[in-house]
Design brief:
Blueprint (H helix, E strand, L loop, with lengths): L9 E5 L6 H10 L5 E5 L5 H6 L5 E6 L6 E9 L1 E6 L10 E2 L7 E3 L14 E2 L7 H9 L4 E5 H6 L5 E7 L4 E8 L5 H10 L29 H21 L12
Parallel strand pairs: 1-2, 1-3, 6-10, 7-8, 7-9
Antiparallel strand pairs: 3-11, 4-11, 5-9, 5-10
Organism: Rhodococcus spongiicola
Family: Belongs to the LysR transcriptional regulatory family.
GO cellular component, one term: protein-DNA complex
Length: about 250
């Protein structure tokens, strides 16, 4: 990287369900001269937003086409099954794939989950979005499996959810265009990775680092120098007394 950190917004795209609030707050503390601009994008549009230079980096869901993109996996989300509040599943703390055998399981087109085989009974049509699938569940049509963050995002008073054991997890990653790894991108990478503000790559470039040798260049305390002088005079006095000639008993010349 050869470019300097510019006083321009850092554009961060994020997909539904991902909450970058903590990282945005840290960015504001460390990079006040470069405000962070949040850009909400659909999950299917996140990679295109990077390649089209509509965002400098993106918090997105895997898998995606990685050609030309760098990424850092961040975390995996718990899969849950969304059901009406009066559903029999609400009596259990956790559901298994076998429990879905007799259920109509909706599979929205924008689902971030990659199934080897969708459990339960498949619907004739796939809902266009997770939001549409949630609305169908509220209308009493089937159930849907989503990452927990999406269940919270589409929360409704008449619906609830339970963790689903054995379902694929949704993985969230930070991604950016490899050829555009700017100083601002690197600064955000450092924040996401937990680098401190004083680390070599995470430090604000506008800050002046403290000298590591400041203590070694301080003069010695004055009280130590002053304490040594009386001891030197005492030694001289003692030497003078021991080396003086004794007086004789003869008459003093007049």
């Amino acid at each position: 990287m050869t470019e300097s950190t510019e006083a321009r917004p850092f554009r961060l795209a994020y997909v539904p369900g991902v909450t970058p609030a903590k990282w945005v707050r840290i960015w504001g503390e460390r990079m006040p001269e470069s405000p962070l601009e949040l850009i909400a994008v659909d999950a299917a549009d996140a990679a295109a937003a990077l390649r089209g230079d509509r965002a400098d980096a993106a918090l997105l869901r895997l898998p995606i086409e990685r050609d030309g993109l760098s990424m850092i996996p961040l975390y995996a989300e718990v899969p849950v099954v969304v059901v009406p509040k009066d559903h029999v599943f609400t009596a259990a703390e956790q559901i298994t794939l076998a429990d879905l055998a007799d259920e109509l399981v909706l599979d929205p087109l924008d689902t971030p989950l990659v199934w080897d085989q969708l459990p339960g009974r498949p619907a004739l049509d796939r809902p266009a979005s997770t939001g549409d699938a949630i609305a169908l569940v509220a209308a009493g049509v089937g159930v849907v499996v989503v990452p927990q963050s999406l269940a919270r995002l589409h929360h409704r008073k008449d619906l609830t959810y339970r963790p689903l054991d054995g379902a694929p997890e949704s993985r969230v990653a930070l991604s950016w265009v490899e050829d555009r790894t700017t100083n601002l991108v690197d600064e955000f990478i450092g924040i996401v990775r937990g680098r401190t503000a004083n680390s070599s790559r995470g430090r604000n470039p506008h800050e002046t680092p403290k000298s590591k040798t400041s203590k070694s260049t301080e003069p010695a305390p004055r009280e130590k120098t002053q304490a040594a002088k009386p001891r030197t005079r005492d030694r001289r006095r003692a030497a003078g007394k021991s080396g003086s000639k004794p007086r004789t008993g003869g008459r003093r010349r007049r």
